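Illustration 12: cyclic pyranopterin monophosphate synthase.
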Amino acid sequence: MVDVADKPITAREAVAGGSVSVNERVVELLRAGGLPKGDALAVARIAGIQGAKRTSELIPLCHPIGIAGVTVDLEVEDSAVRIRARVKTADRTGVEMEALTAVAVAGLALIDMVKAVDPAAVLGEIMVESKTGGQSGDWHR
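Figure caption equivalent — predicted structure in token form:
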């Protein structure tokens, strides 16, 4: 693990995004709230938040940090669900991995919720979109 003991505590934020490609039937059911397993978007949102909070348990050598806030937003489009996670902290290291994990876990939960209707759903395009704070400063895709 990288030693961050001498780094200053600063406000940091990261935003990550991704998507789950789904068929038209899933889009219809998401918009109508009629999926057999229930409210897939709510389940995915909560799963993403939990994923962000447990990142250091899942990713080897990732520092456990105090997360100040997590938001996970899901937007139903014509052939996919876009996922965006924003994670904030005041700590010695960034929250990029927490934001990425939030998107990945939200996407996996969404696939679990829709797999009976679309077994071919695909999770992809997971990436850091921006990060602020810390020694290396701000970065935007």
